[in-house]
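Practice problem 4.
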């Protein structure tokens, strides 16, 4: 909880849920960038192999490009994996705090006898098609 214990737990839960949604969007962006990084690494490696085997006429430019693609993909991959782990940890912490706040709320069970009777009538209605 915050330093001000007079705040409404429901408001805090709403704030935490908004934070969880924002973190989930960040995690999804990281996953997309991780996929793109893996594609860049694979493409760069394939291009480097093709240049090494002499399949392309422009050897030096393609070789430098493929090396840059591999290195850029590795850097991007490592950075986003780290960010994704931190984001997942933050989501877990926020979910734990949300559960703690929910458990502190004095929840009451609301029973509606008329609704139960209506459901029973519907289930046992002989005119109801099956």
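Answer key:
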């Amino acid at each position: 909880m915050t330093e001000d214990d007079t705040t409404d737990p429901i408001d805090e839960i709403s704030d935490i849920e908004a934070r969880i949604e924002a973190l989930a969007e960040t995690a999804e962006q990281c996953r997309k960038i991780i996929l793109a990084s893996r594609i860049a690494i694979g493409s760069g490696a394939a291009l480097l192999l093709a240049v090494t085997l002499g399949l392309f006429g422009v050897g030096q430019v393609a070789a430098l490009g493929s090396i840059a693609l591999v290195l850029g993909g590795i850097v991007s991959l490592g950075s986003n994996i780290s960010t994704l782990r931190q984001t997942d940890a933050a989501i877990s912490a926020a979910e734990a705090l949300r559960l703690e706040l929910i458990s502190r709320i004095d929840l009451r069970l609301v029973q509606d006898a008329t609704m139960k009777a209506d459901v029973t009538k519907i289930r046992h209605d002989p005119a109801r098609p099956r």
